[in-house]
């Protein structure tokens, strides 16, 4: 691609990514700080990927998702996962109508543009897998009929890392379906004071939709045009391969900590998320910093830790950091 093409693409993306600022401003009216959380939700929205949020209770995970759904004129549904939930409570079921004397389909809450799966690790495996079929196939089968889910369709799941009683941890294969796993931390001191001040006043700003679902679909098409150079593709492949064969990248010291490396889904999602991140930064091409910015969220749930890593308190984040720091930047 020559420099003229890139300049033209840059100008086009500069124009078409203006709504990102509006969405960020809208989110900031309700959510104090949590810039990384807001960016991650936008990356998921723009690259058609689902997001898993992990953090202690009270960090505005649910609030952030509800606010984003309000800013986009879209259907929103919330499913509170509990141990007694059934798959039919999520996807819907067949109900017998006495008037019609036939079975009719009653669609479940998964038929929405934004689905908040609150505390996803509180429901048993069969409920989790019912949701995951919808996430992967973008369709749901009820009885003998298959229904397509609306577009865009985005699952935002939350889980609480501190309580393990009465929870059903998501298996690795299911966690892999999430494009990003975002770990949310406490707000900074100044932000905390602002949160207290806002909530004491009790004035919550009214959130009005800023864009339609059609505009989101158009924006996704533009994100796909963001230029990804061959050198960046090589960089992404190297990072993912370093999780599988660390010794080939002079990372022999972490080899024993890795049970299994990231799947090809990691490479695809790393490329998609980097493009979306470049778009959010209003650029028409991906630079290595974009890849580094999204690497932890894309890889932290895809690197399997060995017993040795757990014995030495080594986290997947530390492994990803070592890889990103060691792999040669183009």
Give structural notes.
The protein is of the alpha/beta class and 330 residues long. It has two domains: 34-201, P-loop containing nucleotide triphosphate hydrolases (Rossmann fold, 3-Layer(aba) Sandwich), CATH 3.40.50.300; 225-326, Magnesium chelatase subunit I, C-Terminal domain (Helicase, Ruva Protein, domain 3). It is 47% helix and 16% strand. The protein is built from 14 helices and 13 strands. A five-stranded parallel beta sheet has the order 3-6-9-1-10. α3 (35-46) crosses α11 (264-280) and α12 (288-299) packs antiparallel against α14. It starts with a helix and ends with a helix.
Widest beta sheet: strand line-up: 3-6-9-1-10
CATH homologous superfamily assignment of the largest domain: P-loop containing nucleotide triphosphate hydrolases
Order of helices and strands: HHHEHEEHEEEHEEEHEHEHHEHHEHH
CATH topology of the largest domain: Rossmann fold
**Count of DSSP strands:** 13
Low-confidence segments, given as residue ranges, are none
Main β-sheet: number of strands, strand sense, barrel status? 5 strands, parallel
Q: What gap, in angstroms, lies between the N and C termini?
A: 17 Å
Assigned CATH architecture of the largest domain: 3-Layer(aba) Sandwich
Average pLDDT value?
Answer: 87
């Amino acid at each position: 691609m020559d420099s003229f093409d890139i300049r033209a693409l840059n100008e086009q993306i500069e124009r078409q990514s203006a709504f990102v600022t509006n969405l960020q401003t809208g989110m900031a009216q309700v959510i104090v700080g949590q810039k990384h959380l807001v960016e991650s939700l936008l990356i998921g929205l723009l690259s058609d990927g689902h997001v898993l949020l992990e953090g202690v209770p009270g960090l505005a995970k649910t609030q952030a998702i509800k606010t984003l759904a309000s800013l986009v004129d879209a259907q929103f549904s919330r499913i509170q996962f509990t141990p007694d939930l059934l798959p039919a409570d999520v996807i819907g079921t067949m109900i017998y109508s006495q008037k019609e004397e036939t079975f009719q389909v009653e669609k479940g809450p998964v038929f929405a543009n934004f689905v908040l799966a609150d505390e996803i690790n509180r429901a048993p495996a069969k409920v989790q897998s019912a949701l995951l079929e919808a996430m992967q196939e973008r369709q749901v089968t009820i009885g003998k009929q298959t229904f397509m889910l609306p577009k865009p369709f985005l699952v935002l799941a939350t889980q609480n890392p501190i309580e393990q009683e009465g929870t059903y941890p998501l298996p690795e294969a299911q966690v892999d379906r999430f494009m990003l796993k975002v770990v949310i931390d406490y707000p900074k001191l100044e932000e905390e004071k602002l949160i207290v001040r806002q909530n004491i006043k009790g004035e919550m700003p009214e959130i009005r939709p800023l864009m339609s679902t059609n505009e989101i679909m158009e924006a996704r098409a533009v994100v796909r045009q963001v230029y990804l150079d061959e050198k960046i593709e090589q960089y992404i492949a190297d990072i993912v391969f370093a999780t599988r064969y660390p010794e080939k990248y002079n990372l022999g010291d972490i080899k024993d900590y890795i049970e299994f490396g990231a799947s090809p889904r990691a490479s695809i999602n790393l490329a998609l998320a980097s493009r979306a991140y470049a778009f959010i930064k209003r650029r028409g091409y991906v630079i290595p910093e974009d890849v580094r910015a999204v690497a932890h969220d894309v890889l932290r749930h895809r690197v399997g830790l060995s017993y040795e890593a757990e014995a030495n308190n080594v986290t997947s984040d530390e492994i990803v950091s070592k890889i990103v720091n060691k792999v040669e930047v183009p």
